[in-house]
Every structure is written in structure tokens, then in C-alpha cells.
């Protein structure tokens, strides 16, 4: 069946009017900033920047929350899988949702997919990080010796 432009327009208006959860700070208070949250973009930084940042956050806070919208979701999943497959992290929670926002290019309201993955330190995390940190200076020395 075919809908008219007018019907499609009304449907878009109804969708645009659906409630969207927005965090609004209470006047006189500071908004809660989550110190262990990484909002991933697939255009700003390379993949291993986020992997290394997640390791550092897990060292400091025992867990890290990886968050992304739209096309960056695959990057978050890849980061989580790298950390899990290397024995550094365990999956604590995965949350998916949609978020309403205004499209910069088209100037209209769109729904974007969102994912949050919370990872905690694995039992072997500290041992693996200590071993990796001990091996890093040794690898640098070997690299310098090979140049000579």
C-alpha cells in the first residue's frame, strides 16, 4: 500500500514528539560526570587508543563503561572483544537503546541506535598488565639494539 506525503509527514511529526530521556542538571548542583565512561567515535581516534584508555580506566576504577551511537557501535564491540579475548576484562552489562536527536545534515529528528558495555577487571588483569609493562621496556631495548 502507498501512503501519501501528508501521512508520512504526520507520522514523522508524531515520532518527533515522542518523549526522549534527557539528563538535566538541577540548578545549583554540578552534573554527575562519570569518570570511567568512554564515549567512542569511529572518526576521532584509532581503535587501540580506546583499547589502551579502557585498560587505564579499569586500572583506576576496576571497571569501564564503553558507549557509542550509530556507526561507532561496531567499534565499541570490537574494543570489548579485544579486552575480553586477551583475558583482561569480563562483561558485566550490555545495554542497547535508541536515542532521539537532530540530524546535523538533514535538520530533522532521527532515532540513533546506542550501546553501553560495562567491562570489569578479570581475575588475571593485574598480572597481565604487570607482565605487559615489564616486557615493554625490554622490547624497546631490543628494538634499539637491532637498529645498530
UniProtKB/TrEMBL annotation:
Gene Ontology CC: nucleus
Taxonomic superkingdom: Eukaryota
TM ranges: none
One Pfam family this sequence matches: Alba
Protein name: DNA/RNA-binding protein Alba-like domain-containing protein
Coiled-coil region(s): none
InterPro entries: Alba-like_dom_sf (IPR036882), DNA/RNA-bd_Alba-like (IPR002775), UCP030333_Alba (IPR014560)
Domain (DNA/RNA-binding protein Alba-like) ranges: 36-98
Entry's Gene Ontology molecular function annotations: RNA binding
Organism: Davidia involucrata
Amino acid at each position: 500500500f502507498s501512503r501519501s506525503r501528508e501521512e508520512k509527514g504526520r507520522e514523522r511529526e508524531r515520532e518527533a514528539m515522542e518523549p526522549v530521556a534527557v539528563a538535566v542538571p538541577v540548578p545549583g548542583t554540578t552534573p554527575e560526570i562519570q569518570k570511567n565512561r568512554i564515549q567512542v567515535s569511529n572518526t576521532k581516534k584509532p581503535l587501540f587508543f580506546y583499547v589502551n584508555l579502557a585498560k587505564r580506566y579499569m586500572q583506576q576504577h576496576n571497571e569501564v563503561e564503553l558507549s557509542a551511537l550509530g556507526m561507532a557501535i561496531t567499534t565499541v564491540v570490537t574494543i570489548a572483544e579485544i579486552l575480553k579475548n586477551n583475558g583482561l576484562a569480563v562483561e558485566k552489562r550490555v545495554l542497547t537503546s535508541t536515542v532521539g536527536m537532530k540530524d546535523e545534515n538533514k535538520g530533522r529528528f532521527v532515532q540513533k541506535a546506542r550501546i553501553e558495555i560495562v567491562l570489569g577487571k578479570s581475575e588475571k588483569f593485574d598480572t597481565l598488565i604487570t607482565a605487559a609493562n615489564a616486557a615493554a621496556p625490554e622490547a624497546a631495548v631490543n628494538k634499539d639494539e637491532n637498529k645498530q
